[in-house]
Amino acid sequence: MSIGALAARFGLATHVLRHWESMGLLHPSRDVGGRRRYGADDLTRVATILVFKEAGLCLDTIRSLSATVERAARHEILRAEAEEIRSRIAAARASLELIEGVLNCEHEDVTQCPDCRRHIAEQAGSQVPAHRRARGGKPPARRGD
Questions:
Q1: How far apart are CA 78 and CA 74, in angstroms?
Q2: Does residue 84 carry a pLDDT above 70?
Q3: CB of 60 within 8 A of CB of 20?
């Protein structure tokens, strides 16, 4: 199939497939006129790239995974990605908790909401320089607390 047909099949622009080829992610054959020709393996490859992109992997990581045949090396690459996703999920959960707390708050001034104040205090505490933190990573106790 032509580059246009493959791109249309996935709703992509042809320049995307050319970019992926330049990165070493695709390796189309060429016809006698030098035009790219894509087969069933290329179709699977594009679908694989899109699935991994949808999972949040960047093209460089996808290329590394493609080049890796050893299970241990693949796991090393994916462990780092999994940890990054866990971190983003935790941040998203904290954001949702804050937003839902403020949505359920009956205070006129959002800064008076106890739940919001807790989040603000946590954020203010996390801004204390590391050298001023007490043991355990917590900010030092303030006088009068």
A1: 6
A2: yes
A3: no
The dihedrals phi and psi of 24, each to the nearest 5 degrees, come to 85, 15
Residues 49-76 pLDDT 10s: 999 999 999 999 999 998 888 999 999 9
Give the C-alpha separation, 39 to 6, whole Å.
Answer: 9
Of 99, 115, 95, whose CA–CA distance to 107 is shortest? Answer: 115
Please give the backbone phi and psi of residue 9, each rounded to the nearest 5 degrees, phi first.
-60, -35
The number of beta carbons lying within 10 Å of the beta carbon of residue 88 is 11
**Higher-scoring residue by pLDDT: 139, 118:** 118
**pLDDT tens digits for range 43-56:** 999 999 999 999 99
Q: Which long-range contacts (CB under 8 A, 24 or more apart) does 19-28 make?
A: 20/46, 20/49, 20/59, 23/59, 23/60, 23/63, 24/63, 25/49, 25/59, 25/62, 25/63, 25/66, 28/3
pLDDT, the chain, mean: 86
Residue 81 CB-density burial (10 A; 0-12 exposed, 13-18 middle, 19+ buried): middle
Is-contact 17 6, C-beta < 8 A? yes
Query: Which neighbouring-strand residues pair with 23?
Result: none
